[in-house]
Write a structure and sequence with these properties.
Rossmann fold, single chain, aa-tRNA-synth_II/BPL/LPL, 5-stranded mixed β-sheet, alpha+beta
Amino acid sequence: MTSPADTTTEPVRPEARAPRGFQDRRGHDLVAERRIVQAVSEVYERWGFEPLETSAFEYADALGKFLPDADRPNEGVFALQDDDDQWMALRYDLTAPLARFAAQTWETLPKPFRRYAFGPVWRNEKPGPGRFREFVQCDADTVGSDRPEADAEIIAMAVEGLQAAGLAPGQAVIKIASRKLVNGVLQAAGVTEQGQTLAVLRAVDKLDRLGPDGVKLLLGEGRLDDSGDFTRGAGLNTKGVDAVLAFLAVQAGSRDSVLNALDAVVGGTEAGAEGLNELGRISAALKAMGVADEAAGIDPSVVRGLEYYTGAVFEAELLLDTTDDKGRPVRFGSIGGGGRYDDLVARFTGERTPATGFSFGVSRLVSALRAAGQDPAGDARGPVVIIAFSEDDMAHYFAAASELRGAGIAAEVYLGKAGMKAQMKYADRRGAPAAVIMGGDEIAAGKVTIKDLDLGRELARKVADNDAWRSERPGQSLVDRADLTATVRAILDHGK
């Protein structure tokens, strides 16, 4: 007689893994981002901008750039179909939701409407090093003003906001240009066809990578790259190519000098003259607000998003020296940008509504600062850890933790079941500045032992004069229980 087959099977367990392009972030990274958002939010509110939070989902047709062109409109976005058969998508940026909100609530809003927003956005794109499908953005926009001074205010506020986020003067510059200047160049070059316009814009956008000679080829018949691939050019004649190159050849300098140089190139065209007038008013307003040329300069080579923007455009470029994780120099480039977009709200209302704004990636700025050797999280540390020796003394441990918290000091009682050595290792992994040790003898004597973990880390990094450190701040001290908070406070203050 055979025994029945064994029907027991191992349970199917999913592999613990994060989706591609998404990341888990712990305390230090979150502290860095929150500090930047808080600092920038304080600047924006001081300038009179109110916070606005829109939902993570928008109807897919409200996203504009990603209108459904197939059964499933998921090109570039994460979309799903609601129970009423309408497609919804996670927001791709914070501007499209603003346009929808402004159109939906325009009658009730103060005009112009000044708002800032921050939060995660999602992009269904191929992930790569430093390129994620979910990241945090921070935006500020003015909707309802066509004054160039509104652009200037956004630029000046961006300068102050980036400095509040951790960039000192001279470590970033806002480069300013205008779609209308480019339109003037296109007029001077005789370009009227949309496809040729886009080809010119794409060629100009490659100036940093290919240089003037490479751009010249792309403005003409085309360019053969090192791999043998041929890129078809814009097909401009010699006069047209020369007009675009003359525009790009304008040298950097003060805002006034650049405007004068540009006037010689595009001032004779209707669009160019209009763009120069607007940039002149922006420059005058920046001067009145005390924004130096070095902090915000006019640079005609900025062509970011010119298919989207209708007037002034601006791009924040990092000037800090940055390195990769192997210490090799890297160019970080743009850390934010914006401009005037007067057509976005009109998608909903049919009426042109002027708007201008600036956006930066919070996560990207954190990465940029770290690549420059700065830590946006600053002196962020973990809580003071109260070592737990005995079940019978838990009340004493919790009383000590409560006392520290009452004084504004983060503290926790160890609630695992490990021994002393493992608890100290736990405290170190938490980044605790100190560990509080209260054995039975210490409690009976009204004493407490405090181990300075900050000092231990400092010594581990081979401080130049260890003896001086030990004499100034001993690594472990036995103090009166009444002096617990004062002693821990001294450790925290010394570590700042």
